[in-house]
Specification:
Length: about 230
């Protein structure tokens, strides 16, 4: 994805406020699912960081470092320009590729958290399994994934963004993570309902649970400890 998507497409139509709001929603759910996780220093991988707005927000909520990755060189250039902070790192990487994963581990070791807000559904389905398996390899033992994806059972998911090429049903997302070695700690579907809007970019939401059909599928998964080979 290049300049057209990030400046004029669905991503470009979001204000920074909305991006931060969406990161906060996923982060707050994560704190309820893993209540003691954020009491210590963490290494967090922001998968699909785009311009780094959400990663920057995360860096103010936790102790430790944030590493943002995206397949777009245009997005990563912007992130590095906007957020040249000591505790934030940005790389153009494709986590379906073994060499890119080896690069990350060599640079930063393994991560405590992989944070993925509305990214997996943008990947072609044939890349899902290898990418989530690499999530597993990139995490420490008992590391966790906090992820949200557009729901393939909700019709709006198909026409709100034409780059949603990898939509799945809620149970299919869960099955994907289980097959790649994760334990699903919690998963649910939510639908955002605007509660106030002074301006288009200042939309506040409440999220209500709509099993199966809510627009967003949330998954909170924990890595099952790797077995030692004999």
């Amino acid at each position: 994805m290049g300049k057209e998507y990030f400046e004029g497409g669905p991503y470009g139509k979001q204000s920074q406020w909305i991006i931060k709001r969406n990161y906060k929603i996923l982060f707050d759910y994560g704190k309820t699912v893993f209540p003691h996780l954020f009491e210590r220093e963490l290494k967090i991988l922001d998968f699909g960081c785009a311009f780094g707005v959400g990663a920057s927000w995360l860096s103010k909520q936790v102790k430790g470092i944030i590493v943002g990755v995206d397949i777009s060189s245009y997005a990563i250039q912007k992130a590095k320009t906007f957020f040249p902070h000591n505790n934030m790192f940005f790389y153009k990487l494709d986590l379906s590729k073994e060499l890119d994963n080896k690069f990350l581990i060599a640079k930063h070791g393994r991560f405590d958290v992989i944070f993925s807000r509305d990214t997996i559904e943008h990947l072609p389905k044939e890349k899902h399994e290898v990418t989530v398996k690499n999530f597993f390899r990139l995490l420490t033992n008992k590391g966790v994934v906090m992820a949200s994806m557009a729901n393939g059972l909700n019709p709006y998911s198909y026409f709100c963004d034409r780059t949603h090429v990898g939509l799945r049903m809620p149970w299919s997302y869960s099955y994907l993570f289980k097959e790649c070695g994760f334990k699903i700690v919690k998963s649910f579907e939510k639908q955002g309902i605007p509660v106030s809007r002074r301006f288009k970019e200042d939309e506040q939401l409440i999220e209500v649970t709509i099993p199966l059909f809510g627009f967003v599928t949330y998954i909170f998964a924990k890595k099952i400890k790797e077995q030692k080979t004999r």
